[in-house]
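Hello Y.,

Per our agreement to keep a running log of every chain we model this quarter, I'm adding this entry. I've kept the format consistent with earlier entries: sequence first, then predicted structure.
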Amino acid sequence: MTKFRIFLLLFILMQFLLPAQLVLADTGPKPTMEFAFQQELTGDLVMIVSGILYECDQPDCSDAAPLEELGPQRFYCELESCRALAYGFAPYHRLEIEFSDGVTRESNIFETAGFDSKYTVTIQPHDLLVEAQLSLGVLPPMFLIVIACVCILAAGAALIGLIIFLVRRSRKQ
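Predicted structure for the entry above:
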């Protein structure tokens, strides 16, 4: 019994002597939105100064609220494009972008197009027109991995079934 007590005491003492390590965890892939801008304006090209992505639960966006900055979740713009990363998006959205010509333009209300959404934003004289682009990126990467694994398992099961069939057939002859 004394050996057990000594072992237990050494184990507890080791816990205090070993340094504690910081453990970081991530919640996995997060949905994104990418906005590519094209200009319908005639004359000088305008550049993006700043922008806000409003999220809405109502189809008319009467409850619009800016996307909050929480950890990696945020909306940011460069000179000719914008991007959003979030833990999860609301079903409806509206953009408000300030341009280098001093005009702040608002977009139409648009829906989330998928996990990795891509949009084309047409800059018009007084507003913005947001249209979703169809791409293979609308499926989450994890979904594609699951489909590939299921296909591999099905092919493996079919191969094993064929081998068992051929072995039993050869034994009957």
